[in-house]
């Protein structure tokens, strides 16, 4: 019989060290016939909850501990294991203390700190411990002294490990001898890092990545490939190799320790819900607050409200959740008290209790929202309440919560970033010693897929097939990178989760400090749910910040007092704007697909926006709900109801199932099951197995209630087609409001709206597209000016009392720091460049960029001084400043402050002024956007020769006609579509508006590499009309504009035509389809970030600028 | 003194370790394993068309062909699945 436990095991949650998931380790341990498995990850308990659940699923006893660095320097480590509830508490607090002791990312413990948390902990001293090092160095005296000190600090055992490196066996034998002499128990471990021996290359790559060193035997922890989860017979052989006849005793001691350390989920606190303490009887308090709410909301006399409230309070009482609601109400009030815009989102908007407590502003009764989607007897766990706040003030909201609930009872939730294709290629590439530039090219050639898809993508994606990457030389890179798939690589603060609990929170979760300084639990959102902790999602929404900024700017520039919540929600002018699809910058409705849908749907009121938002989802698109709805809406088809009884339920959406709430009601009408049961049935539609169970139940109940067979089948088909997609109406309704509000601002306070959107960047497009949109709406773009530009974009009257333009913000200048922006604004006005240099004290590169982007043009208008001259002067000032600093302290520099200019004689007017093309190039480089004119204007000559059609002229072209278009690529998407193809949607901007292109798989062999790789594109395609104003182009070919321009300049138009006439390669399908339980196919490459560099900022000029001096 | 060889040998393995081997026609019985270590291959240096360097396993053992005990180092090459006698101390 061999060892039936592993006590020293690192999973992938030991970042850049372990190579297996907790679930895989538990599965393998069970398969090997083990009884107990410990997880002792390095420096954290990130995997603890997953380990406990995995062991429970695999029928294993779970033990927990941590492998902690000893002291701030060096590589010594000890393992601590937790025994019982007290041990878990000590372990959590010890790990927290380790992170508090070291710099962020470098936690460590000392023997003293462990002694402070010794209750319930057992210390394992292995070869990596200070005792192990002394033994290896043949210092038995030192080893014995250190061991004695450990025994005085905590319960201590010696851990024997033999990884069969040279000398390992002898060292292990000496450790065993030391334990015997000192009378300390010795146990056997294997310091596991991966599942099986063949996984060792992954661990070796992680060793190199952790050290930021290339792969080399000297940099490896693992040189022998023995750190795998060895089987009981293999462990027995290790024991025999080290201990000889003493092997049995070693194994027995190991087993005895493991039995003591098996933890029950209850020891961790997983058996209950841990809510913050509330004074008095929480339920009585909640009832009283709701009664107040009825009065405040004017719902006292409403019978419906009273009934609904009684139902909701009943569920809350049965689940014991009163304290939860009171806490969340408290939190929402705290955030609003600080003047932060705060709105409820998601299913919580369907609860009357939330409305009465002031958590949400939507009245669920008026909007016909159901509470069961949020809160029902059939739902397990805590309900989820999400609050949307201004993104720029999210951390301020957190601070309010920490102040109210106490640093001990509050923590942010963390999330693990895991290896995906690009990150895996980068780390493995570096480990293999590839040049950084080559690594960058390879990584960016891939779309943002999983690492495990690398090999498949190389074969299936045309843009990769044509990249020439699939060479034998890179084969090992791709093979190893695939194996890093899904391994954790970085811990980060969850973007919105906050834990609210009482002072015992630190007994139940280890805490470290996040990058921005908040206490952060090492558990992620799934873990905290399993641990019964209350998580409030406080979500930073950029559009809320953009709207807050717009409101402030409207007030500043024109004195308009706007209360967005009080704005009438039926403004005809706003809906007229929405119906034109010119909705760039608006919340939710700016994407190409949404602009097309809006164009077809022609929304007339807020209800239409709710439906629009719900329809624009993979579910409705996959189950083709959009076309019947639009047909019924346009009046070309009568609404069809699967059964007359369902007409009241489906009337609002003309017979199409759009909302989760409608699914609940359909179940209820057809089976009489009640809405709580219906909600359980809806959740089961998510997966195939659940669908079968629900289907049988539904048919039986519906038939029993007298519905005829064909009707029942028809309704069931509708429900399954709808699947678990669709949308929660409460959620859509809470999204429709900011959608409308943003459109209202765009229509009525246009300049302020753009100032808000450009400052907070809430959307999907690069800012230069928003800027161009502003131009089309007639908003003057006011250039960068050191005397006028502020930190944020401002609305600024062009003339006294006249319409407002928008002023480029200082923070757009590449590389400028907040401190520099602050000093520039503080020191205004500036009389000269010298004055600015002296008082604003910005770095030389920033001063040069300000000059290049025209920040001083207004100061040097009369007489005009070219930017190049000013640039020389920055250099002179910089050199003079350095000379000044050489002056000994206490001695005044020679010359007057203004005399700085005299330090070096810079003759003015000798350098040529910058051309229009150079100015745009500088603007793109410094600000990331073309301010003075559109970058495409420099290609007008070629585009005119080719007969390229501008976006603004496309509506005049007949449907199905073939056109050539051109522009700057501003977005590429590969959303899931009904056919299961990978369809590439690309949006070009040509200075007259957006052009939306669709590339189907049939043309991707010739187009994909260009679409993803180029910034400026020419495309040929067929115009497709989708509605009154909506149109898009089905592309058949595309080219890099800069490349064509080069041919045009060099060889003339005929050669350009010849290049464009070349046939493309033969089309191939792009990968296999994934077939969903609902029967609809999906591309494996849909809904992922595309290949190529990010499009939010333009690439360096060398990658797009055709040639200098070619300006039109 | 140490002598270095690279002679192929036939080795009998039981329960994961060598127990007997034949070298130069003589049967040697392993009395005791003195040391056992392994090395992984330098897979990152391998050329795609080159020869793989296999994982290697070393056993330093006390063994005897008759009464006289010597120390022998046996090397097992994982890629070619062959045993060599790499060194002898006598």
UniProtKB/TrEMBL annotation, chain A:
Residues 5-72 form the Polymerase/histidinol phosphatase N-terminal domain. Residues 1091-1112 are annotated as: Disordered. It is found in: Cytoplasm. It holds the Pfam family DNA_pol3_alpha. Its EC number is 2.7.7.7. It is an enzyme of class 2 (transferase). GO terms for cellular component: cytoplasm. One of its GO terms (molecular function) is DNA-directed DNA polymerase activity. Gene3D superfamilies: 1.10.150.870, Bacterial DNA polymerase III alpha subunit, thumb domain (1.10.10.1600), Metal-dependent hydrolases (3.20.20.140). PANTHER family: DNA POLYMERASE III SUBUNIT ALPHA, ERROR-PRONE DNA POLYMERASE. Belongs to the DNA polymerase type-C family. DnaE2 subfamily. Belongs to the DNA polymerase type-C family. DnaE subfamily. This is DNA polymerase III subunit alpha. It comes from Actinomadura litoris. The gene is dnaE.
TrEMBL record, chain B:
Residues 1-90 form the DUF6504 domain. One of its GO terms (molecular function) is transferase activity. Pfam families: DUF6504. Keywords: Transferase. This is Nucleotidyltransferase. It comes from Actinomadura litoris.
